[in-house]
Every structure is written in structure tokens, then in C-alpha cells.
Amino acid sequence: MSSLNSTVSPNAAFVRPQFFYINGFSNIPHVKYYYIFLCFVYAVTVFANFFIIFIIYTERCLHTPKYVAVFNLAVIDISESTALIPKLIHTFLFDSQFIAYEACLANMFFTSMQSLTLVVLAYDRFVAICFPLRYHIIMTNTSMLVIIACVWVFTATLILTLVLLITRLSFCRSIVIESYFCDHGPMNRIVCNDNFPNSLHAKICTAVFTFIPFSLIVLSYVCILSALLKIASGEERLKAMKTCTSHLMLVIVFYLPFFIAYIAAFMSIFNSNIRIICSSLSSTIPPMLNPIIYTLKTEEIIGAIRKLYKRNKIITSVLNQ
After folding, report:
1. What distance lies between CA 321 and its chain's CA centroid?
2. What pLDDT shows up at residue 95?
């Protein structure tokens, strides 16, 4: 490892290495079982999210703004898991920890759009409960598609800027990245020229992708709770709150492991191996649980699955006659 740290000369004016070394875990016995576990997580993630996509696509009753956003969340879950988990397994399970400079930059496009999609779903619930009479005017499939397109363009612009800023950095201290993928933070710590623009942009991205969405979600539920308290009927109040249950569970599943990993990294209360495990789980578990939560906790999805099952059963019985 020391030879990798001294691969480049600290006196060089500008150093752009040909490759980086993804350090990942160190001195953990039986760590390969963790990668096998991630294989299982990835298989469930892909199957469950494709199942949700199929159900929403085939059932016309689910062609609503809310489920357009859920469809988008499933696409994001598959995309982000595919960008991260297979590469992580290939890197460590097959001892392929060297990654080319250009491939490392491409790998950095992995980011979490889940938080912004959760904000979109929170906005949908906010309009549905606080402005029920205007919901179908404000929230249409077209308006939801426009919102989602703006989220994708906005995210791509921020991440592209982040990656382009990396190209101005000189890596003369080390080529070892203390993470499980080409993570911007650990890369920022091994440069030897001015990284203030990168640090500033990274802080902006952290705020935009994490803390601002969380604040907006909390604010939306404060407004929703206020609107629910104005409903006289307890039964109607409970019925309205049930429409938010699945979304609230998604928020908890996404933010709880993230904040645990973030606080652990910030306070340095765990060693690097524990931080990497927390970080990797916070990136891989929510995409697996999201479709399961929506399947089990949403009456419309359960109803659509039952209709699909009955339809297939009728078709099968007709074909067998």
C-alpha cells in the first residue's frame, strides 16, 4: 500500500494518474460473504422493481401522477443499484481493485436521486391532502412528467459539474481511494493542489441531495398534519393518513441508515471498515425495500396484482378447455 501512496511524486506540478486503487475493506475475515449478500440484495432489487414497473405499466388504474413518480423511483432504484453493486462485487470479489482514471470519473456519476423523488412524492401527498378539490387540476400526468424531467436534468447538471471539477485536481499524494467506489470525498483528501471549488460544490451537492429534500419533506408533513387536524371526522382523518404510510416508510428507510452512516463518518466513531459497511448498506438496502413497501402497504398496488392474477387465471382456464 505504501508503494501505491508513493506512486507519484509530490513535487510534480500536475499529476493525473493513469489509475486509482479502490482500497475498500481491510483485514476483515470472511468478507466475501458480504459480497455474496450484496448479490442477493441486487437480485431482489432488480426483480422487485421490475415487478413494480410491470404492474404500473400494465394496469391503467395506476396511470396517475402518484404512480408516475413511483415508476420513476423504481427506474432510479434499478439504475443506481446496477451502477454500484455489480461493480463493487467485481472489484472486491475478483480482486480487481485498480480502476482507470477515466473509468473512475464515469463511476462518480453514481448518485442518489431517491431523495429528490421522495420530495416529489411528498409534494403529491401535500397537494392531495391540503388541496383535495384542486388535486386533479394541479397534479396531472403531464405535470408530474415535467417535474421528473426537471429533477433528472438538474441532477445530471450538478453531477457533471462535480466530475468536471475533478479533472482540475492533481493527485500527487496517493492513488489509494479509501472507499468502496470512486467517492468524491476520499478523492478530495488525496489531492495536493487547491480543492476549495470541489469542496464547496460537494457541500452544495450534499445539501441539495440530502438536507434540503429532508427539510422539504418534513415541512410538507407539517402542512399535511395541520390539514388533517382540521378534518372533523376521525375516520376520514385516518383514511387520508393511510395514503401517506408507504411514503413515510420510504423516507425512514432511506434517511435513517444514511444519517447513521453520515454521523459515524463525521464523528469518526467507527473505523473505516464499519463506515464503508454503513455507507454501502445505506446505498443498497433502500432500493431493495422500496418496491416491497409499496407492494405490501399500498391498496392500489395490491388490488392491481389481484386483478392481474384473476385475469391470468381466466386466460389459463380458457386455454386449457
Report:
1. 48
2. 79
**Are the beta carbons of 17 and 23 closer than 8 angstroms?**
no
Q: Is 25 helix (H, G, I), strand (E, B) or coil?
A: coil
Q: How far apart are CA 184 and CA 298, in angstroms?
A: 37
- Average confidence (pLDDT) over 294-321: 78
CB 88 within 8 A of CB 31: no
Q: Which residue has the cell 372533523?
A: 232
Residue 110 CA neighbour count, 13 Å, CB half: 24
The whole model's pTM is what? 0.89
**Is residue 55 scored above 80 in pLDDT?**
yes
CA dist 112 and 184 (Å) reads 13
CA 96 vs. chain centroid, Å, equals 25
Look at residue 8 in the predicted model and tell me its pLDDT.
Answer: 53
Q: Please give the span between the terminal C-alpha atoms of the chain, in angstroms, as a whole number.
A: 70
Cα–Cα distance, 158 to 156 (Å, whole number): 6
223-259 residue pLDDT tens: 999 998 888 677 888 888 888 999 999 999 899 888 8
Please tell me the predicted confidence (pLDDT) of residue 222: 95
Name the residue type at position 6.
S
Pull the grid cell for residue 283: 446505498
Q: Identify the pLDDT of residue 11.
A: 53
Question: Which residue from 142, 136, 130, 199 is spatially nearest to 168, judged by alpha carbons?
Answer: 199
Residues in Cβ contact with 270 at an 8 Å cutoff, skipping those fewer than 6 apart: 264, 278
231 three-state secondary structure = coil
141-166 and 114-130 helices, crossing angle to 10°: 150
Over the range 162-171, which residues count as b (16 or more CB within 10 Å of their CB) and which as e? bbebbeebbb
